[in-house]
Amino acid sequence: MALQVVTSHLHRDVTLSSASPSALLVAPATRPTQIRQRTILRATKTSPGFFNPLAFRIGQVKRREFGVVASSNAAASQPWEAFTPDKASAAPSLSDVFWPSAGAFVAMAVLGKVDQLLAPKGISMTIAPLGAVCAVLFTTPASPAARKYNMFLAQIGCAAIGVVAYTVFGPGWLARSAGLAAAIGFMIYTRSNHPPAASLPLLFIDGVKLHHLNYWYALFPGAASCIFLCLLQEIVCYLKANFKF
């Protein structure tokens, strides 16, 4: 519930000082047509916590017209509201659900077909972080994580960090911890926040079949696959905007 306090058409001289509290003009307004109603309320100091005396003297205010509007929400946010859906956003339409889901299906289908072609070389394009990339690009295309700068810089940088961590510390918990910490620090420093890229160091350290890529892992399969996903994102966004149902 909002509280509206409007003071208007003050045609008297009011002297405010630390010795005498101020006279306030308060007009409750329940509708815009009742804003001009006026009521004089004189505030007096009845307890130390009710009114704080002014630290300095304010001169006379003559024939001044002014208005003050204050609002406050009486209902404070409850701790459990973070576990419920956002009530401010409208329910998505069927097309808003269908097109991103269809885009994700096409993305994994195409990358899976490429996997079959690259299988003799022991290379896979359908790495787990690309599922998170699809979710970011197709469901929240306007978010910072979906920006092309964030995505490509984070994909390349975090993948290279994973290779360095494995080279320095070898397989194990120390390499995983150092790689993840360095990846997060890199994204913060370069302002390229892209959460899916944080898993790339862990994927390389624990993925034996990726070790032979060495520093080529910085470009493949993560960054190379993102080029295809960006093209697919444009198609999904176009379909969402022009074919609604």
UniProtKB/TrEMBL annotation:
One of the Pfam families matching this protein, by short name: TM_HPP
> Per its record, how is this protein called by name?
HPP transmembrane region domain-containing protein
Membrane-crossing residue ranges in chain numbering? 126-143, 149-166, 215-239
Lineage start:
Eukaryota, Viridiplantae, Streptophyta, Embryophyta, Tracheophyta
Domain of life of the native organism: Eukaryota
Identify the keywords attached in UniProt to this record, alphabetized.
Membrane, Transmembrane, Transmembrane helix
Residue stretches making up the HPP transmembrane region domain: 91-239
Natural source organism: Kalanchoe fedtschenkoi
